[in-house]
Specification:
The complex is a heterodimer.
Chain A lengths: L4 H12 L15 E7 L2 E9 L8 E4 L7 E6 L4 E3 L4 E8 L2 E5 L1 H7 L1 H4 L1 E9 L8 E9 L4 H14 L1 E9 L2 E10 L2 E7 L22 H13 L13 H15 L4 E3 L16 H10 L7
Parallel strand pairs in A: 1-8
Antiparallel strand pairs in A: 1-2, 2-9, 4-5, 6-7, 8-10, 9-12, 10-11, 11-12
Chain B lengths: L6 E7 L2 E9 L9 E4 L7 E5 L13 E7 L2 E4 L2 H5 L8 E9 L8 E9 L3 H14 L1 E9 L2 E10 L2 E7 L22 H13 L13 H13 L18 H17 L1
Parallel strand pairs in B: 1-7
Antiparallel strand pairs in B: 1-2, 2-8, 5-6, 7-9, 8-11, 9-10, 10-11
Classes of the chains: A alpha+beta, B alpha+beta.
Chain lengths: 292, 261
């Protein structure tokens, strides 16, 4: 039986559409909107996805080349369902379920649903990187550029990150608020219980004294590879590049090319990328803007 | 309890070779709901269907295609696609050793433990040497027919490899943001904010935070089952602070009182 992971991913992608322009607002659609609490100072902010677009354009197709849709079916009614006919539920035995909505889950911890409280500040360097699950960018809402900048400057100067808890779309999150280059970001952290311990995976404990014969060659080998910047091109997804190259070769030969009518392609993310960084920049500079 | 090895491989750092095993470091503990049809609250099934006919397509008839331009697909030759799979060369190559600050955190994806295979001596020597460097390695490897890039870290004496996302799929922090210009800020506010942050300083303790979501969900389910109406309205978020200086002063006073208490 399907659980809610694919739906969450799809909903997540839609939210993250990031950078997709939408009606009635200026700038990209936020994933979360609320107030950052620093002592008694309330800073209205928004969180934005750092995802740019769907990573791959590789799709599953029908024999006639039309992209397939992943749809839900109700076995009792024997028909396909639209996403708005689906609810999340929890089994309570005897084949019965209780339906649960995001709004109900958010309302269970109202204090964390609209507010993100900075609980304390920690050395930024003391945050273990394996705990970082994903990064969201924080933008001041119109009118709150001043306290946003104040916090960003102070935290960056002191090399500290703020620890906060909040609820987003029915899920509890632990976050490290990090300041760099005048920009605040929320690094969503895994809870400690989600990360296995070395002992859990059967690793031997580190010895108190490492073997001297090996230490010196290892130090030398690492020192030889020192660099000050990361070669970002070396981090490209090779598979994506190879699949695209293969598709382009076939396209040049006219092999297997299918024109698909627009209405047959599911409304997927297109690369209508609004420059999120420019939007945030504008907000940060918008000191003089009146409160909305 | 030990976990299944995902891969036995060798870590190459310059002329040094360290045989290692890879283990998943993350355990999925999130709550996953069933998906139900809203009318009868019965679990739904999932199908791949043709968008025109709504008819399911048998797995053997499904093709893979690449959207080269909007609405123009190339149906890929399955053999040619399979030939793109990287050979498992059983090696992790470290190509750079960089300061942690050089690595964009936005790229961080999933952590894996590396454990020693055969000999512990080389493994722990590398973990120690990397910790001394206070830097991270940039590594490249093949796992489960896919190429990955990763950050090699030394975490409390063990080696950890965190896979990295393709930076092209991400919004990277811009260097053109208005620089954190303290001059443009009010000196008194700056001083008060620094004092407040200083008072709120603490060591990072990951064990202090627990996900109480599961307990709350089960509680919600019980209440709904008992027929209780669940309010789903949230109080409006607090209004933006108007007098920043005054709010900072009051926060500082309050924090000092709590600190003394």
């Amino acid at each position: 039986l399907p659980d809610d992971r694919p739906l969450e991913r799809r909903k997540g992608r839609a939210d993250e559409a990031a950078n997709e322009p939408h009606e009635g607002r200026e700038g990209p659609r936020p994933m979360w909107s609320g107030s950052l609490a620093f002592g008694l100072v309330a800073v209205p902010i928004e969180l934005h996805s750092s995802a740019r677009s769907t990573p791959s354009r590789l799709r599953l197709l029908a024999p006639d080349g039309i992209p397939l849709q992943r749809r839900y079916r109700c076995p009792t009614h024997d028909r396909l369902l639209d996403d708005d006919e689906i609810v999340r539920g929890w089994p309570i035995g005897h084949g019965r379920h209780v339906a649960v909505t995001d709004a109900e889950l958010d309302a269970l911890s109202p204090e964390r649903s609209g507010e993100m409280t900075l609980l304390h500040f920690v050395e930024h360097g003391s945050l273990p990187l394996p705990l970082v699950e994903r990064t969201l960018y924080m933008a001041p809402r119109p009118g709150s550029a001043r306290p946003y900048r104040l916090l960003a400057v102070v935290m960056e100067r002191m090399g500290l990150a703020g620890i906060a808890r909040f609820v987003m779309r029915g899920h509890e999150h632990l976050a490290a608020i990090v300041a760099a280059g005048g920009l605040l970001r929320a690094e969503l952290l895994r809870f400690e219980s989600e990360l296995r311990k070395p002992d859990d995976v059967g690793l031997p404990p580190p010895p108190s004294n490492v073997d001297r014969r090996w230490l010196e060659p290892m130090r030398r080998a690492l020192a030889d590879l020192r660099a000050e910047t990361v070669d970002l091109a070396a981090l490209h997804d090779e598979r994506e590049d190879r699949v695209r190259a293969l598709a382009e070769q076939q396209l040049a030969r006219g092999e297997g090319v299918v024109e698909v009518p627009a209405e047959a392609v599911e409304q997927e993310l297109r690369e209508q990328v609004v420059d999120l960084m420019n939007v945030i920049k504008g907000r940060i500079e918008g000191d003089a803007a009146p409160a909305a | 309890m030990s976990t299944r090895t995902l891969l036995k491989t060798t870590l190459y750092v310059g002329d040094q070779e360290v045989p290692v095993r890879i283990f998943a470091a993350v355990e999925d503990q999130r709550i996953h709901f069933r998906l139900l049809h809203v009318q009868d609250l019965q679990p739904v099934t999932q199908q791949l269907v043709h968008p025109r006919t709504g008819q399911p397509v048998a797995p053997q008839d499904v093709r893979k295609g690449y959207e080269v331009e909007p609405h123009r697909f190339v149906v890929l030759d399955p053999d040619a696609l399979a030939a793109l799979e990287p050979a498992n060369d059983r090696r992790i190559d470290v190509t750079q050793v960089v300061p942690r600050s050089a690595l964009p955190d936005v790229c961080l994806d999933r952590p894996y433990y590396l454990g020693p295979d055969d000999s512990d001596a080389e493994y722990f020597a590398l973990a120690r040497a990397l910790a001394e460097e206070d830097r991270v390695g940039i590594a490249h490897f093949t796992m489960r027919k896919r190429r990955y890039h990763g950050a090699l870290l030394s975490e409390q004496g063990h080696l950890v490899l965190v896979t990295l996302l393709d930076p092209r799929t991400l919004v990277l922090p811009s260097s053109t943001l208005p620089a954190a210009e303290p001059k443009a800020l009010d000196a008194q506010q700056l001083q008060l904010a620094e004092q407040l942050v200083e008072i709120m300083r603490a060591p990072f303790d990951p064990t202090a935070h627990h996900d109480d979501h599961r307990a709350r969900v089960l509680e919600l389910v019980e209440r709904k089952r008992a027929g209780e109406a669940i309010p789903a309205d949230l109080p409006p978020p607090p209004p933006a602070t108007e007098d920043l200086l005054r709010a900072l002063e009051r926060s500082l006073r309050q924090a000092r009182e709590q600190d003394v208490a």
